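Known limitations

Files may contain more than one protein. Parsers should not assume a single record per file. Below, a two-record file is shown to illustrate correct handling: read the sequence, read the token line, then continue until end of file.
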Amino acid sequence: MGRGRRARRTVAQGGTGLAQRLNDTVGQWPGVRITPMFGRWGYFVGPQLFGCFPLRPKERDLWIHLAAEDQTRALRDPRIRPHRRFARRGWVELAVGDPADVSTALHWLRRAYSLATNTPEEETNG
């Protein structure tokens, strides 16, 4: 039971480290709900999942759901790779290992949020 307690504490605090930075920012976007699911923070708008980040501090692979043209653009960045199982559905993975990666992560999460809400990105930058 010791391992579960740390995860529960992390969930109660809204994440730690880089996860907390992502959760604090994404959680301020209109209509976003952040829910722990299967060992990850799930980023939802209504029923639509547009991204998820691990609960465990040692895991750092952010999953982002993008439109086909955004996925193609994202994959030009060497830090971004196709998702292991869901690449054909528009998912990519980005390793968020240090604070400098957070801005890249937020850029692509904004694009995913825009897709999930069908709202132009300019309206989501605030």
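...continuing to the second record:
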Amino acid sequence: MKTIALILITIFTTADAFAQQTQKADDALLLEYYQNQRFADAADYLKKIYPEPVTDLKILSGLAYTSEMAARLPEAEDYYQRIYATDTTNMAVLFNLGSINARRGNNIKAITYYKKILVRDSTNFNVLKQMATLSRASGNVIDAINYLIKANKLNPTEPDVAYDLSSFFINLKLYKKADTVVTAALKADTANMLLLLGKAQIDYRLEKFPETVAVCNQLVQTGNQTDEVINMLGNSWYNLKKYNDCITTLKQLEQSNTASETSYYYMAMSYKALHNQAMAVIYFDKAIKAAVSENANSYYGEMADSYDQLHQLKKAVNAYQKSLLYGVMPLTYYALANLYDTELKNKALALRYYKKYLNSNPPKGQQSYMAYAKRRVGELAR
């Protein structure tokens, strides 16, 4: 409703200005365009009625507004620039120029315009909020925090600012400061999902596990069942020694194929606490597999080859054996066999790894290696 009211105010203000200037604009047609959000048609119509050069500030304002609403941002910026050139104190124009440049991804230019507003009005909440967003996007974390602190002091109950500021405090491990910010905002909106998420994150890090469970359950009941919320809930159940609740909660992640090393670990520890060692072993194994890259065997194999070329043979053997711990590749057996055969002169181990290679079903493309391995097995077995 507020948006519609603002649009209608703009329509009638602009239409009145046009009527005073030339009496050419069709107010009813403009109203129809605005009400149906046909801003591109409105912009084209106004450009036709008021051809260049346009110098009247009210007409330029109408052209700028319709162009901006039509997402013709370069045109809108040009109109606002022309207004600003004649009136550098116009706060609304500065804000629009900042907003347009932010939408176009020109953060540096947007910040320049917003700073000009802050010079005249250092307590402008909306500008401080925008400056925090732009500073964060530009990588200026300190500036972002400072703007958020100022904005939060002006309006402690605004949820977006409160959550963003608390997130920074959480990252800096300033959990009590984060809690103060979120708690103040929650008093004004006890069911705000964003603030409740922030509260859960803070309580979890402060190891307030009963409180974490309560807030996470509230989030889940209202539809927020993200992996983060389920993890915090499950891990909190574990710390409260509610092991069955922990397993039941974290199994949701496993069922949705989003379980992680941590969730598997807490499930394994819960099974262990329940003296179900068989299931504990299964989930510890899952935790280990989740913790290790699927390519670990390949990485160790390449490392081993580098050690071999450096003639650091013991390190090469160690790396090849680690590779096998993370997954068997037939060529790893062959490489070990060849290393023991030709470099380390250990016939027994060479024979063992040649046999392992031949029994590992090497792909057809390795026929030459297979032929050599078969020949060496025959020779070494004599």
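Parsers that stop after the first record will miss the second one. For reference, the second record is described as follows. The chain has 22 helices and no strands.
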